[in-house]
Inverse folding.
């Protein structure tokens, strides 16, 4: 494993994610925005079963990969529960208010060259970087 | 057939997240940590994905309809507005606090740890809150 350069696996994963998003648009005509797909799971739209199928596959994918490659799944974050809840609330609220997340705006929206999604992507990456910086500043003091 | 393909795409997406290390909150926080021990992995993930979607979406949208539906279901607006930016800033703060965005959080559920479960429960509550506030505001 150590002979593989660091960027190979992230790049391969990115190509798989892009292929998934392309097939979704080409075959189903849908944007692969995970937050939107998940939020609409419990909606009453007829013909929405494809969303359940996609999310089931999304859960099965990592299991399949770690089993086939015999690599251990990453350990979950050791952040305290209160931070987990706070972060989850912000991510859920923010992605719906923004109408997309890393997949919908980042991969698909920029894939469509949408300025709206480019601005959104710059905003969440910028806010994420600033947050990590401020957390470091406050906790290392 | 449509559901089978959606499941296959979900599996591909989930494998992609696991292969690239995006289901590991440390890798994602390492990318956001530009003044520390920066981990560029997410650049390669985004780059790899966009290398497929930019030319692929362009070609696909030349078609009049997708293969298994009568029309494309695309977001109406591509223009820059306050709402997607404000929402993304809120999302980015949560992302930077923890290291999960919605895809990796859901994909991590199958590892059966309590952390992704709690995160997804809170994320679902946040989505519900947004929907409740939006419908409240549109009523007044």
């Amino acid at each position: 494993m150590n002979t593989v350069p660091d960027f190979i696996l992230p790049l391969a994963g990115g190509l798989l994610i892009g292929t998934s998003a392309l097939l979704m648009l080409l075959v189903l005509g849908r944007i692969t925005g995970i937050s939107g797909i998940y939020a609409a799971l419990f909606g009453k739209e007829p013909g929405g079963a494809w969303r359940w199928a996609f999310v089931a596959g999304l859960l099965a994918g990592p299991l399949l990969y770690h089993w086939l490659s015999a690599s251990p799944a990453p350990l979950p974050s050791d952040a305290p529960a209160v931070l987990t809840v706070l972060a989850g609330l912000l991510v859920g609220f923010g992605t719906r208010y923004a109408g997309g997340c890393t997949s919908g705006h980042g991969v698909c929206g920029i894939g469509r060259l949408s300025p709206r999604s480019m601005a959104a992507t710059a905003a969440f990456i910028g806010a994420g970087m600033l947050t990590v910086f401020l957390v470091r500043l406050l906790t290392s003091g | 057939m449509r559901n089978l393909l959606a499941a296959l795409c979900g599996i591909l997406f989930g494998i992609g997240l696991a292969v690239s290390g995006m289901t590991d909150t440390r890798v994602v926080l390492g990318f956001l940590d530009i003044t520390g021990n920066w981990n560029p992995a997410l650049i390669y993930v985004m780059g790899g994905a966009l290398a497929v979607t930019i030319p692929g979406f362009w070609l696909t949208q030349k078609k009049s309809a997708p293969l298994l539906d009568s029309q494309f279901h695309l977001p109406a607006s591509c223009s820059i507005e306050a709402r997607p930016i404000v929402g993304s800033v809120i999302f980015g703060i949560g992302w930077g606090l923890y290291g999960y965005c919605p895809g990796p959080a859901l994909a991590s559920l199958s590892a059966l740890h309590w952390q992704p479960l709690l995160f997804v429960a809170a994320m679902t509550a946040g989505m519900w809150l947004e929907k409740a506030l939006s419908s409240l505001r549109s009523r007044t």
